[in-house]
């Protein structure tokens, strides 16, 4: 089974080797038929502390690094 890859924006880089990434998904509401935006924050492992707040990054599912970190940083675009 392939690992999921999500794209999001770094909202916090204060922790060592960890970034918090906000991922937004859009979908059509089943009753209202309007486009709805939902966001969720993911903690991702950043081995070299390269990502900064505002960067657009790609994260991939992985084995758990800790209680909250089950994602790893795989690529980024500078903001």
From TrEMBL:
Keywords: Ribonucleoprotein, Ribosomal protein, RNA-binding, rRNA-binding. It comes from the Bacteria. Pfam families: Ribosomal_S17. GO terms for biological process: translation. Transmembrane segments: none annotated. GO terms for cellular component: cytosolic small ribosomal subunit. One of its GO terms (molecular function) is structural constituent of ribosome. PANTHER family: 40S RIBOSOMAL PROTEIN S11 FAMILY MEMBER, SMALL RIBOSOMAL SUBUNIT PROTEIN US17M. NCBIfam families: PRK05610.1, uS17_bact. One of the primary rRNA binding proteins, it binds specifically to the 5'-end of 16S ribosomal RNA. Belongs to the universal ribosomal protein uS17 family. HAMAP family: Ribosomal_uS17_B. Part of the 30S ribosomal subunit. This is Small ribosomal subunit protein uS17. The lineage of its organism: Bacteria, Pseudomonadati, Pseudomonadota, Alphaproteobacteria, Hyphomicrobiales. The gene is rpsQ.
